[in-house]
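G., the chain you wanted modeled:
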Amino acid sequence: GGGEGGGSRGFRSMGKPFMPSYKGGILRHAEDLGRRLLKAFDTPTGMPYAWVNLKTGVRPGEVTETNVAAVGSFILEFAMLSRLTGDPCFEDAAKNAIRTMWALRSKLDLLGNTLDVVRGTWINRSGGIGAGCDSFFEYLLKAYVMLGDEEYYLMFTDAYVGVMKHYHDDGWYHEALMDTGAATHIQATSLQAFWPGMQVLLGDVESAACRRS
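Predicted structure as tokens:
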């Protein structure tokens, strides 16, 4: 398994038993791409830069601002890559980034929208389920489904309760300040459209059916 206190608890390679007839195919290309992307995670916080040059790595003076979705949307692909290659480094990097960002949540279990990956501080403290945040929630739940790691489920359920309490209003969803829950952007956007489908996956069909946007 992964190192104690480190990343992929219960890690196991899926290579041979998962697809015994697989001869490699494009896996070596996926691993090569993964290692190039890993350079983005070389920050003091472990949260990745938003941009990385696939040939040369992170540029000197690269912008350190990224968003919640960008930090939290590696775990499905990187965990699968780790389990197919037998190298836990990809899964560990993705999981560490999620853990670090989740540790920056407010007492209301809310996140902001954008943050500095070097300093580990929030830039935009108004969060929601739409642009800049959307796939973070989706990946947490699906990581639990795919990997069976309860840590993702516990993070998701706390985040979900926070959303339903502070972003939700009679079937509509808006953004709110992470520290107070005060509503900010009172509007529905197209990038919120995934939410009812995710609620069905969770089993909260009643809430999904009440979605109005």
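DSSP finds nine helices and seven strands in the chain.

Shout if anything looks off.
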